[in-house]
Write a structure and sequence with these properties.
495 residues, Fumarase C, Chain B, domain 1, 7 strands, lyase, ammonia-lyase activity, L-Aspartase-like, Aromatic amino acid lyase, Fumarase/histidase_N
């Protein structure tokens, strides 16, 4: 499964188990049943779990044990996850079933697919995983298959039993290992990671365009994005960033004229290709990590069809995704740092050349409130406060989980929290970039300059149009929100 395919399901597309996938699931189930029949000790199937892992279960009780195991693991709190993230996690788990290592019943896999296709989404709180399998949250998915709990369907909250009945679906009977197959997985974190990869790809695309606009606002030297510079370094990310900025500047007077330009600009302009490029390199590595995890057999125990064995293991541990999220936050911190430094240069130039609103004779009067075109100047200090939070978010979090369950579970990846913090960091970087853009547009003036490039001209014209719709006196934060919405709709498409 590709990231695009997973995201398509997260966005609402239907799913279908192929004939081959169903056969892989069925064969995996046959291997598991053979091992049960041989009387083997199989974690979570013929034994209990966690610190009670060596306690054998009576064979007659294995089916009755399934709902008990689900209820044992239900545990999550906090605000509800959006349906998109829940669908991404459910699709990731279904793809894991299709790999054939889960030993899950075909009926359970088909029922999970049916939930997706009928848009039945379990209500899952945000906090519940320490990154050693998303058990507490995925248990809520298992409860829905049993007809328990609450769901969202067609924009309404209702009981799982009501939703299943409305969709003409019946609760499933969980066979031995079905409960563990549904829960012992990092699928929610993997799905979240996929959605974050898409968001960050779009954010970096927007960042390059905003940088190009800032460069033209201060007449920065475009030599830093020349192809010869990028190719000399051999970084794929740098080449992508440089090409995007060149494309945004193309057709403008600044893109091909060095007359009047400084031989070198401040580093926050000059090293954008290297910093944004490095962030994109880290993002591409993160995408690879998420794809690998998405298509891995991450079950414990793992049903190995080739050897017809059932093996205890730690494949549910998404350390690669967690570390990718950690790296991304540091990389995003540098992207945000450069934006904050550039907006400082832009602000200084703007207030020197245009005046400060209400503070001096050259600035616009504030009797009726600040003009929307000057909103960015009023957000310089809030942006500085946001940047301090970004720095704190860059701190590692994957080393913070204490030993759990009588120290049997004495390590965890904390992937879910690492991903949550990465999303928060992305939000702050977006906020900083929007403030930077607002100040750059203020500096460029009330009329779109003819010297702008093709890409920057389109962006600045759209900003002028949007700002023209906003009444004078609108709070700077509200201007920021409206501009952010505009950028998301029109300028943050996939690369």
């Amino acid at each position: 499964m590709t990231l695009d395919e997973l995201i398509s399901v997260a966005d609402g597309a239907s799913v279908e188990l192929t004939v081959d996938a169903i056969e892989r699931i069925a064969e995996s189930r046959r291997v598991l049943d053979e091992a049960i029949a041989r009387g083997e000790a199989i974690y979570g199937v013929t034994t209990s779990v966690g610190h009670a892992r060596d306690e054998r279960l009576p064979l007659a009780d294995l089916r009755a044990w399934q709902p008990v195991l689900v209820e044992m693991h239900v545990g999550a709190m906090g605000p509800p996850l959006p349906a998109q993230r829940i669908r991404a996690g459910m699709a990731a788990r279904l793809n894991g079933f299709a790999r054939g290592g889960a030993g899950v019943s075909v009926a359970v896999a088909e029922s999970l697919a049916a939930l997706l296709n009928h848009r039945i989404h379990p209500l899952i709180p945000r906090d519940g995983s320490v990154g050693a399998g998303d058990l507490g949250q995925l248990a809520l998915v298992a409860r829905v298959l049993l007809g328990r709990g609450d769901v969202e369907m067609d924009g309404r909250q209702l009981s799982a039993a009501e939703a299943l009945q409305a969709a003409d679906l019946a609760p499933v009977t969980l066979e031995p290992k079905d409960a563990l197959a549904l829960m012992s997985s990092n699928a929610l974190s993997v799905g979240y990671g996929a959605l974050l990869v898409r968001r960050l790809d779009r954010l970096l695309t927007l960042a390059d365009l905003i940088v190009a606009t800032s460069m033209q606002a201060v007449h920065a030297n475009p030599s830093v994005v020349e192809s010869a510079v990028a190719s000399a370094r051999g970084s794929k990310g740098q080449e992508i960033t440089s090409e995007r900025i060149r494309r945004a500047l193309s057709g403008g007077s600044q893109a091909d004229a060095a007359t009047g330009l400084s031989v070198q600009d401040p580093l926050s302009f000059r090293v954008v290709p290297q910093v944004h490029g490095a962030c994109r390199d880290v993002l591409m590595a993160a995408a690879d990590a998420v794809v690998a995890e998405l298509n891995a057999a991450s079950d414990n125990p793992l049903v190995d069809v080739a050897s017809r064995r059932v093996l205890s293991n730690g494949n549910f541990h998404p350390m690669n995704v967690a570390l990718a999220a950690e790296s991304l936050r540091v990389a995003l911190g540098h992207v945000g740092l450069l934006s904050e430094r550039r907006m400082g240069h832009l602000w200084d130039t703007a207030v020197t050349s245009l005046g400060t609103p209400g503070a001096d004779a050259t600035g616009p009067p504030l009797a009726d409130g600040a003009p929307p075109a000057f909103a960015g100047l009023g957000l310089r200090y809030p942006a500085a406060a946001r940047y301090t939070r970004l720095r704190h978010l860059a701190q590692p979090v994957t080393l913070d989980v204490p030993p759990l369950d009588l120290a049997i579970e004495d390590h965890a990846s904390n992937a879910a929290e690492a991903l949550t913090m990465t999303e928060q960091a992305a939000g702050i970087v977006e906020d900083l970039l929007v403030v930077e853009l607002l100040i750059a547009v203020t500096l460029l003036g009330p009329v779109v300059p003819d010297r702008l490039g093709t890409g920057t001209r389109q962006l600045v014209a759209a900003l002028h149009e949007e700002l023209g719709r906003i009444p004078t006196g609108t709070l700077p934060g509200d201007v920021h929100r409206r501009v952010t919405e505009l950028l998301r709709k029109r300028f943050a498409g996939s690369s």
